[in-house]
Amino acid sequence: MIVDEAKRRIRVSGGELAVRDVGEPDAPPVLFVHGFPTSSFLWRQFLPMFPPTMRAIAPDVLGAGDSDKPGDAPLGIEAQARYLCELLDELGLGRVAVVGHAQGGGIAQLLALQGRTETLVLIDSIAFDAWPSEPMRELQRLVEPGDALVDALIGSAFDVGMAHRDRLPPEAVAEYQRPFAGRDGAVAFARWATSLDGRGLAGRETELRALDVPVFILWGEDDPFMPPDTAERLSEMIPRSSLALLPGCKHFLPEEAAPTVAPLLYEYLRSAYARLPHTHEAGPTPVELGRRYRKE
């Protein structure tokens, strides 16, 4: 079992957030926001790259990971964006770079539209009115408070959402399942799953077109949950955006393509956000994407 002992706890209006905070306090801060059904553990291969040049802050969103799992606080993306604004305020931070995956990307967009971002990175993000997707709606119909199949549901999300399932070892899956063990954990999982919605994103196209920050969009070319046409629509709409579609990958890019995505992300934020000079690191950078040729 993998347990992150380095997390600190910070109170926001909905409860306490468990937060991984690494790097120099005065370095340019980068906020990492995970989606469903993961936690800040998703960024374990990313965070060590950022200090000392940048400060990496990775919370477990409320209701997930080691953060509080209240029975009454709202857990939708609008509420989560509010909690993360409160977290930034508690840390004495204003505008930051935000990296969001899946639902975390929806939260990141809301933070950007509220003026809390200087740079935005969206990885297989929910967007527009395309969420919840049909697979997510089906899960919401299936999951029940106290459902004994939580472990199976979390495992199946990775089975469907990864092209290279062998890159996620059993102990990593167990870490994602750990916070939802037992009856109380299963109830918390059901509450988080059924709270997932896209409220706050639909009808914001005019604001996205006016968004004046650099945006990097990374997407798995074979994402079964958020197809690449969503990424292309985002890129066409946001003026200062760049899009990279990664072949041979699906939804969970931080898990199946970390050796490629993490250095790419660091270099983008170093240049577009921290504005630090490039330094050459000895040794090769692994790239394992593997485009599959399709017959027309």
Describe this structure in words.
- With 296 residues, this protein is α/β, with parallel strands linked by helices.
- The protein has one domain (8-274): Rossmann fold (3-Layer(aba) Sandwich), CATH 3.40.50.
- Helix content is 35%, strand content 16%.
- The chain contains ten helices and eight strands.
- The protein has helices spanning 77-90, 103-113, 134-142, 150-161, 170-177, 182-195, 205-209, 228-237, 253-256, 258-274, and strands at 8-12, 15-22, 29-33, 55-59, 96-101, 117-123, 215-220, 241-246.
- It has an eight-stranded mixed beta sheet with strand order 1-2-4-3-5-6-7-8, sandwiched between helices.
- Strand 7, helix 8 (228-237) and strand 8 (241-246) form a beta-alpha-beta unit.
- Helix 1 packs across helix 2 (103-113) and helix 4 crosses helix 5.
- The longest helix is centred in the C-terminal third of the chain and has 17 residues, at 258-274.
CATH-defined architecture: 3-Layer(aba) Sandwich
> Runs with pLDDT <50, length 5+?
285-296
User: How many beta-strand segments?
Assistant: 8
Integer-rounded radius of gyration = 18 Å
Shape: globular
Helix content: 25-40%
Query: Which H/E pattern describes the elements?
Result: EEEEHEHEHHHHHEHEHH
Class, according to the CATH hierarchy? Alpha Beta
Strand order of the largest sheet: 1-2-4-3-5-6-7-8
CATH fold call: Rossmann fold
Rounded to the nearest angstrom, the distance between the terminal CA atoms is 46 Å
| CATH H level, superfamily name | Alpha/Beta hydrolase fold, catalytic domain
Please indicate the percent range of residues in DSSP E strands (runs of 2 or more). Answer: 15-25%
What is the count of helical runs?
10
How does the major sheet shape up? 8 strands, mixed
Mean pLDDT over all positions = 90
Structural class: alpha/beta
- Counted up, domains total 1
